[in-house]
Amino acid sequence: MLKNALDTDIENIYTNQKNFFSQQRTLPIKYRREILKKLLFAIRENEKRIHDALYNDLRKSGFESLTTETILVEKEIKKMIKMLPVWSRPKRVKSSLLNFPSRDFIVPEPYGNVLIITPWNYPFQLAMTPLVGAVAAGNTVVLKPSESSENTSLIVSEIINSVFDSSHVSVVQGDASVASTLLKKRWDYIFYTGSTAVGKIVAKAAAENLTPTTLELGGKSPCIIDETVPIKKTAKRIVWSKYINCGQTCIAPDYLVVQKSIKSILVNNLINEIKSAFGKNPINSPDYGRIIHKKHFNKLKLSLNNQKILYGGIQDEKQLYFGPTLVDEPPNESILMREEIFGPILPIISFDSENEMHHILKGREKPLAFYIFSNKKNFIDNIFKRYSFGGGVANDAIVHFANDNLPFGGIGNSGMGEYHGKYSFKIFSHYKPIVKRSFLFDLPQRYAPYPKSLSFLKFLINRL
Ligand code: NAD
Q1: pTM metric for this prediction
Q2: Active-site residues: which are they?
Q3: Which one, of 285, 271, 342, lies nearest residue 319 by Cα?
Q4: Residues lining ligand 1, judged by CB closer than 6 Å?
Q5: Which of 24, 98, 132, 428 could be joined to 137 by an S-S link, Cβ 3.0–4.6 Å?
Q6: Whose CA is nearest to atom 30 of ligand 1?
């Protein structure tokens, strides 16, 4: 068990980081790039240990750890190092003739002292990616990783300690009570990833100090499949995206909404693809993960009560193994259809007409992701237009996360604010508008006593 950080240690880190920032130590771009290079080096040096920690926390395969955790972080750091001189440069914009003559700029400045709180499901990547953005933008950071993925949280803190002065970036370990202590402090920016319920607690605490906040939350991401799809390939992509990390992915397809005419053949194909990916007994597969802890395991188990299992449902509590499971038409009011599943259970709901499909989807909270498998371009475009969601993919799932040219984030109940690549630099920067006037010239009419006739002024303003 990770020990909770002491209040006195938190207080010291907080005060030291305030001083560090006010001394403008984080401002030089050269310093930011150098420290990011050191971080990249430390991650590469420790890659095997990071992967071992992820295996011990979630039994992630080396392949998953590389492709969904370390490589993504390394890519993000490399992008920041390359683009920082461009993104951080003051940008000259056209001046207003009303201020003639002037030179106008937008200057990105760091917010200051940032707090980042992260979850356990991709415990390396979800801690490091926002941290990299916050550091690139010139902030100090206190990172509170999840207490549930303790092996990874420990290696994260070891790497951070080896690279950063603790007055610049510090890891504070502990559970929800430590997060509450941290949230009582006044931060310049809070970045939170986790459940919607806790997201509301974070937002309330941030509101006390009017602290700007990014909330990366969860939700039920639907996956629609119509009868025009190539079924085998569709099934393969769904099985991969649903069962990666044992279904504990915020953007995993939460439930399928399938056209009735292909339902049974799709189910057969899903079962074949599960077997081909993980064998007849996925418990023996080196590529199939485990549930994070007993509490989550029991929640998943409970959600299967009174459900019609089409495939799987096999569990081994001692190993926290929960097999890939397909559930047939769970009722709308069941836990499976009310709450985010966040595990390897995939409900399959069928529709005949488009109207019926909309009936299944309507009235739900805005999800973090939305997936459509179809060969009909209009069908895809109309649905993407009609529904609001964090991010969408046609004919695949979860892959939008990997493109750092796309902003990643939720909307409504699934969050607010977006990051990755340029968007990370943006959310951790305040864009300060600066107007530099000259003493050369003034419109005499701007000063009182004001002109009595406004027609010349209107004429002038309309033409500026
Ligand atoms: P969680 O909300 O329980 O915990 C996340 C973090 O919040 C942890 O560090 C935890 O210590 C802290 N925390 C817990 N209770 C708190 C409290 N009362 N006050 C302050 N902090 C508290 O979430 P989780 O179970 O770790 O993660 C699962 C959820 O996260 C899912 O809903 C999933 O969809 C979501 N998620 C979202 C994204 C995203 O990018 N949008 C990514 C991963 C996970």
Answers
A1: 0.96
A2: 216, 250
A3: 285
A4: 117-121, 126, 144, 146-147, 175-176, 179-180, 183, 193-195, 198, 201, 216-218, 250, 340, 342, 368, 410, 415
A5: 428
A6: 194
